[in-house]
Write a structure and sequence with these properties.
Helices cover 41% and strands 18% of the residues. By secondary structure, it is an alpha/beta fold. The strands form four sheets. A five-stranded mixed β-sheet has the order 5-4-3-6-9, sandwiched between helices. It has a five-stranded mixed β-sheet with strand order 12-11-10-13-14. Strand 3 and strand 4 form a beta hairpin. The longest helix has 25 residues. The chain is globular and about 65 Å long.
């Protein structure tokens, strides 16, 4: 009687299903060997090895050199195919944009800050930014640009690539940002809100075991991004991390949402400017508050410390519920030690000891570049996913693979962002 072997088809099917996740882990720098991939994915080493081999055949992943191992044969190092490929990215603010070249694995180069007037609206502001990014791409390597990423200071509908009802971006509501960029550059584009970009950017440089984290950006507004099991978590409707309108004890200031005492009204940069003005301080923007607090102004320091205490109250509930490895603080307000100390104190006071025993609470290690790295990573993941669709997932699982597609940029206007086919992201 002939035995029917179903193991090989099952393994091939499993390898096909793992391919997108493998590309994501290698692109983000979280894994650089087959053994690390197997550990992170919780999959059989043989299935991971098959998937990697098929991706290597397609030219999507390259395997070279060796790295030290704890025993046995040295491990080969995995990287993205075409290590000279890159994305250009921009982290947009109200008056300036931080721009740079983002490499596979989270490397960053050619970083600078350029004027950018977000109040001018997309029809005026985007063409100027595009010229800057195009010059950056041509300087770094003509023909090797694979994606364009933007970090935006407002709620983003990832599916449509547009911001939705932003409070500080006049004229940008529902403008098709990613479609515009794809048409302009001829490569995949990705856009997300600044907190999510910072969460992803910071995650690429943190220890692999930190698979659960909360990133909070405190600038003029407040936003949060959540990493769960090593991936950005968006929630059912894209609103995961929406802490801005959680009401705090002792807050009574009216909020734009119609409630009173929301976190944004007592702990954001805009709130600090308002509070200090009411107390007679000569401040017109957040940078004035930071300057006063840095130089030990009593009123500014007291306001900043109270803002950190309010944020700590809100985060404590989330930290107790989520039990993350780390809480990272970013944005200009996080540069003030009284603010960080107040957040840390409130978390230790309000959370269960088991939750805080090994909890990391600190500023982002990438500082102002975290959002830039995250935006670039989103763009590179989008380009990789497009390349994976190009060859077809069924081809990856078959014994005979078609010839690799010719490299080079192509227009993807109208396609869905596929670093995470998810609903709108909100702040």
């Amino acid at each position: 009687m002939t035995e029917i072997n179903t193991g090989a088809p099952r393994a091939a099917k499993g390898a096909s299903a793992l391919a997108p996740r493998i590309l994501e882990l290698v692109a983000s720098g979280q894994a650089s060997s087959r053994a690390e991939l197997a550990g992170l994915l919780g999959a059989a080493a043989s299935t991971v090895s098959l998937a990697v081999s098929r991706l290597v055949e397609r030219g999507l992943i390259a395997e070279e050199g060796t790295q030290a191992s704890t025993g046995g044969r040295p491990r080969k190092v995995l990287r993205l195919g075409g290590a000279d490929e890159f994305a250009v990215a921009a982290d947009l603010g109200g008056r300036h944009a931080r721009v740079g070249v983002v490499l596979p694995g989270g490397g960053l180069t050619n970083v600078s800050t350029v004027p950018f007037a977000i109040a001018d609206g997309p029809e005026t502001a985007l063409p100027r930014l595009a010229e800057t990014l195009q010059a950056l791409a041509e300087e770094h390597g003509p023909g090797r640009l694979r994606g364009v990423g933007l970090s935006l200071p407002g709620p983003v509908d990832v599916a449509s690539g547009s911001v939705v009802m932003p409070s500080r971006m006049p004229g940008w509501n529902r403008f098709p940002i990613t479609a515009w960029l794809q048409e302009r550059f001829g490569v995949p584009a990705a856009a997300d809100n600044d907190a999510n970009c910072m969460a992803v950017g910071e995650h690429t440089v943190r220890p692999a075991e930190h698979r659960q984290s909360i990133m909070v950006k405190i600038g003029s507004a407040i936003g949060a991004g959540v990493i769960a099991d090593g991936r950005l978590f968006r929630g059912a409707t894209g609103a995961a991390g929406e802490i801005t309108h959680i009401r705090v004890v002792g807050g009574d200031t009216p909020c734009s949402c119609g409630n009173t005492g929301c976190l944004e009204t007592v702990a954001s940069g805009a709130a600090l400017v308002r509070i200090l003005r009411e107390r007679g301080a000569q401040v017109s923007r957040l940078e004035d508050v930071v300057r006063l607090a840095t130089h030990g102004d009593p009123e500014a320091t007291r306001a900043v410390r109270k803002a950190g205490d309010y944020l700590g109250q809100v985060l404590a509930t989330n930290v107790n519920f989520f039990n993350p490895n780390a809480v990272y603080l970013g944005g200009i307000v996080s540069t003030l030690e009284p603010f960080v100390a107040a957040v840390r104190s409130q978390l230790y006071e309000s959370c269960h000891p088991l939750v805080t025993e090994h909890l990391t609470i600190e500023r982002v290690s990438l500082s102002a570049d975290a959002g830039l790295v995250g935006a670039g990573q989103f763009a590179l993941q989008r380009a990789l996913a497009d390349a994976l669709r190009e060859v077809g997932r069924t081809d990856l699982a078959s014994d005979r693979l078609p010839a690799p597609a010719a490299p080079g940029p192509r227009s993807t206007v109208g396609e869905q962002p596929c670093h995470d086919p998810a609903p709108p992201t909100a702040r």
